[in-house]
């Protein structure tokens, strides 16, 4: 239970700080920045993968689970990083990508040479009798989910990039090998883990076509056997330590299943990442579209998950940003006119909810999407495939580019901006991905004259200080309001009323008499003017305020 008052920070090592000036971030770079991280008072850092990888999917295509990729450093650097963080009371969470390996992984290579044991590590299938691909499944990164397995005439399954082959979790030897990986890192001092797309591990043994017209992902996602796999994983690895914090990245999951994944009695995971709330700017459920976000839907989803998980005894990870998402300020705030206020409002919204908040590197200084001018500036494989696909589907180059610009994963992968120099103080040589907004947004400026970083410090300290934030129940409030997401947290005789204005216009909130008392305090407010708890509270553009009523 110890994770309820914790705040976790995500580092994308490629883009955090480059200590050896090769244009790519590294572990020694992170060590140098530990004092900065410690100022924020975060409890733990989730590191995106830095294991040996050809980097076709930026490290989520692992070729050796047991070694640090030389572009990031050495095992000695890793050990020093863990030690340094521990000295600052910061825990380590590693990213375990156990659904698939790189096709350069030894297991896949052995399978290719004809080793039957290793062929059974993957989903390798014959074409259909008529020569069609084994199933009609699509890769999440575009095109079919099947690729030729050498010159055998067979195909292997890849739900992601074609150089990421899906592992066959039905094979007990596969699971044993994967648990060995987790234990290897556990024994090196890592207690906490994030499990990448862990709910697509439960594919059937017999793979069949999905029915056109149905959601194609449902045939392999969130199947009941995932719960068994997670129980087994828990038991075989981190479960021995009640202090371990784990989070499963869940694709297209449900509240019902997420309760099961995270109820402590089930001994599966501490919490889950779910993405429904980030799909509210998808047109007809399609990511590669450009459309304003649907505020009513966003509220409904946040509310449904808060209520559902709370009633079922589950636990949610709370987040807006990560290395797969464009910046939330660009999607749900106003990066031009109200960058500070909208950054703070978004932060307040999730930090005071029930769950464990995550901060993605750069969020604490209000980073925004880069201003790229051409598709050549993008690197991410999913983005480049989507661009080709959009053109193939009839979009003009300008239309396709506008969509890419709003949705690309590279938006949040640009280097952390430490200062206003050419390479943003990230490196002395050309970074692997170009920063463009460092003149306005950088750590040096933020720490000397900004307000977002200190606002995050305040939110983090509030979660540690007030049990109503870490432990309280959740109740909806003014669900029908056009521009405010409000909610109530309760613990014993205390009530916390949180109001967040999601728009750049002033608005009013009618507060029912049951909340009106002289005995209240404002625990946080992103404007300096005094605000009172009255029957008619006026909120300024992107204002957030939380009233604690005793
Ligand atoms: C989710 C990761 O966050 C993403 O970056 C990656 O491409 C896929 N899983 C596949 O590993």
TrEMBL record:
Signal peptide annotation: none
Keywords assigned by UniProt, alphabetized: Glycosidase, Hydrolase
Top-level enzyme category: hydrolase
Glycosyl hydrolase family 13 catalytic domain ranges (all copies): 10-413
Enzyme nomenclature, EC number: 3.2.1.93
GO biological process, one term: trehalose catabolic process
Matching SUPFAM superfamilies: (Trans)glycosidases (SSF51445), Glycosyl hydrolase domain (SSF51011)
GO cellular component assignments: cytoplasm
Family: Belongs to the glycosyl hydrolase 13 family.
UniProt protein name: Alpha,alpha-phosphotrehalase
């Amino acid at each position: 239970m110890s994770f309820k008052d914790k705040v976790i920070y995500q580092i994308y090592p490629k883009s955090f700080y480059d200590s050896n000036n090769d244009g790519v971030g590294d572990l020694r770079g992170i060590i140098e920045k530990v004092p900065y991280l410690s100022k924020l008072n975060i409890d733990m850092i989730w590191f995106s993968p830095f294991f040996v990888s050809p980097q076709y999917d930026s490290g989520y295509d692992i070729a050796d689970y047991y070694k640090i990729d030389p572009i990031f450093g050495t095992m000695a650097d890793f050990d020093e990083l863990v030690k340094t963080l521990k000295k600052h009371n910061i825990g380590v969470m590693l990213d375990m990508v156990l659904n698939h390996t790189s096709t350069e992984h030894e297991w896949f290579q052995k399978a290719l040479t004809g080793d039957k044991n290793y062929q059974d590590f993957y989903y390798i299938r014959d074409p259909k009798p008529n020569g069609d691909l084994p199933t009609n499944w699509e890769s999440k990164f575009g095109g079919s989910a099947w690729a030729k397995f050498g010159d055998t005439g067979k195909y292997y399954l890849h739900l992601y990039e074609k150089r990421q082959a899906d592992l066959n979790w039905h094979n007990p030897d596969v699971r044993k090998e994967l648990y060995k990986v987790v234990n290897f890192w556990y024994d090196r001092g890592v207690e906490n883990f994030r499990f990448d797309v862990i709910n697509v591990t439960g594919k059937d043994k017999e793979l069949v076509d999905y029915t056109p017209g149905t959601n194609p992902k449902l045939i392999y996602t969130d199947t009941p056997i995932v719960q068994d796999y997670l129980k087994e994983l828990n038991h075989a690895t981190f479960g021995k330590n009640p202090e371990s914090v784990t989070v499963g990245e869940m694709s297209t999951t449900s509240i019902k299943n997420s309760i099961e994944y995270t109820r402590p009695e089930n001994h599966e995971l501490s919490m889950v990442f779910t993405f429904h709330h980030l799909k509210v700017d998808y047109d007809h459920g399609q990511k590669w579209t450009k459309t304003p976000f649907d505020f009513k839907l966003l509220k409904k989803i946040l509310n449904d998950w808060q209520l559902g998980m709370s009633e079922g005894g589950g636990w949610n990870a709370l987040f807006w940003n990560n290395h797969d998402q464009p910046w939330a300020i660009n999607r749900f705030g106003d990066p031009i006119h109200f960058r500070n206020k909208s950054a703070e409002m978004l932060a307040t919204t999730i930090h005071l909810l029930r769950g464990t908040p995550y901060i993605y590197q750069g969020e604490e200084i209000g980073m925004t999407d880069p201003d790229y001018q051409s598709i050549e500036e993008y690197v991410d494989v999913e983005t480049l495939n989507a661009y080709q696909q959009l053109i193939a589907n009839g979009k003009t180059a300008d239309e396709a580019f506008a969509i890419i610009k709003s949705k690309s994963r590279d938006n949040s992968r640009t280097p952390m901006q430490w200062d206003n120099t050419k390479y943003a103080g990230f490196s002395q040589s050309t970074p692997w991905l170009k920063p463009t907004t460092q003149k306005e947004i950088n750590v040096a400026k933020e720490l000397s004259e900004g307000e977002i970083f200190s606002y995050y410090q305040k939110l983090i300290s509030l979660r540690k200080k007030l049990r109503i934030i870490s432990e309280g129940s959740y109740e909806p409030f003014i669900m029908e309001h056009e521009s405010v997401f409000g909610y109530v947290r309760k613990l014993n005789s205390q009530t916390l009323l949180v109001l967040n204005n999601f728009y750049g216009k002033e608005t009013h909130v009618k507060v029912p008499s049951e909340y009106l008392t002289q005995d209240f305090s404002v625990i946080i407010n992103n404007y300096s003017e005094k605000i009172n708890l009255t029957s008619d509270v006026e909120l300024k553009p992107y204002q957030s305020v939380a009233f604690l009523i005793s």
